[in-house]
């Protein structure tokens, strides 16, 4: 005669699984019965004009009419500014290291410092020289390029 393939531990595990299934089914039925008794449905939350959650719906009297054609999707077109009209800026060399080939220029209008590399020079510059330059987007921010001594 052949022996049964099921061992004692397999039978115990199967009994535990069956017991869990039954408990889960009972909980599910209890939740359904509770939902029918409560009959409250899904509670709603409304948002007022200040962004706060409320239980009462907002009144339509204070609403504004918005024309859908005025809504701009995406990035708005760039408007011309004074920087684009006159790209040449004036400034003073705050620091320049000839051995390393870079330095910084302070803009005379905004007092911002811009990085300058020796490859962006037209004339040779030294510290405290008055220069004219243009700005160009670099890897870490705006860089001064086409730097020349001011007349």
TrEMBL record:
Name the GO cellular-component terms.
Answer: cytosol
Pfam families, alphabetized: CSD
Protein name (database record):
Cold shock domain-containing protein
Superkingdom of the organism of origin = Bacteria
Where is each CSD domain found?
88-149
Task: Point to the regions of Basic and acidic residues compositional bias.
Answer: 20-39
GO MF terms here are: nucleic acid binding
Region of interest (Disordered), residue spans:
1-68
Which SUPFAM superfamilies is this protein grouped with?
Answer: Nucleic acid-binding proteins
